[in-house]
Amino acid sequence: MAELTHRQYDILEKAIQTGRRIAAFRRGTEYVVVPTNLRMISGREAVEAIHPTTGDRITLYLDELDRFEVVK
Hints:
Layout: H1 6-18, E1 22-26, E2 29-41, E3 44-50, E4 57-61, E5 67-70
Antiparallel strand pairs: 1-2, 1-5, 2-3, 3-4
């Protein structure tokens, strides 16, 4: 996922605001997390998130994601 569309940014930002889970897919692995922040880290856009069960923090770089979707 080289860059997000305006609609995808809106969806991601709303998930951050409301605390909704997202399923992010990267290199064949699915990560179901609660996104907490969208920021730039060393010139790359990243989603900072928390694993809903363990509470572990994870950083997902948008340029490494294959896709993401909000979990309903």
